[in-house]
Amino acid sequence: xxxxxxxKELTARQKEVLDAIRTFIAQNHYPPTVRELCTILGISSPRxxxxxxxxxxxKGYIKRTSGHRSLVLPMEVPLIGKVxxxxxxxxxxxxxGYLSMEDIFANPNQFGLKVKGDSMQGAGILEGDVVIxxxxxxxxxxDIIVAIIDEMATVKRVKQDKYGNWWLEPxxxxxxxxxxxxxxxxxxxxxxxxxxxx
Length: 198
Description:
By secondary structure, this protein is an alpha+beta fold. Helix content is 19%, strand content 33%. It has 2 domains: 6-72, Winged helix-like DNA-binding domain superfamily/Winged helix DNA-binding domain (Arc Repressor Mutant, subunit A), CATH 1.10.10.10; 76-194, Umud Fragment, subunit A. Strands 1, 4, 5, 6, 7, 8, 9, 10, 11, 12 and 13 form an 11-stranded mixed sheet that branches. Strands 2-3 form a two-stranded antiparallel sheet. Helix 1 packs across helix 3 and helix 2 (34-41) packs across helix 3 (46-58). The protein starts with a strand and ends with a strand.
């Protein structure tokens, strides 16, 4: 499993510029020019936009190449909700933002979930972490997965006991294993953990 840290946080204005770039690319399938961003953002000076682009590039949110339309967005994974690592909680798919994963995760079947609870602390997955889940990956005995039980999402380690029974096991002795049966839907395998340090 891969662990890595988030990029630096954006100011409100930098986020507005980044959102404008994302929206423009989504609508036009190519990046905006500096002058087009001036118009969109209501900034009179191209230098003002350039300063924001420099900050975004320094923080790793964009790349700039030579040419008229020189903006490139790194590959991003949508952050779509939260998953519990303690008591179960309702899994609601709601876009919370984007995580840039260029050159790390290229699989389109991956998404991020924010962890709530401490049942996986023995595996190094702590409350507030984001787990990256591959919905297409095959899992085996001992893998950490995300499962849905009674419309609740949870992250656990899948284990088979000596009798051939499968369990969803926490990595914290405070919690009991859950049986892996036909009522459990495995959403995907956890392939990475992101932790942000303040």
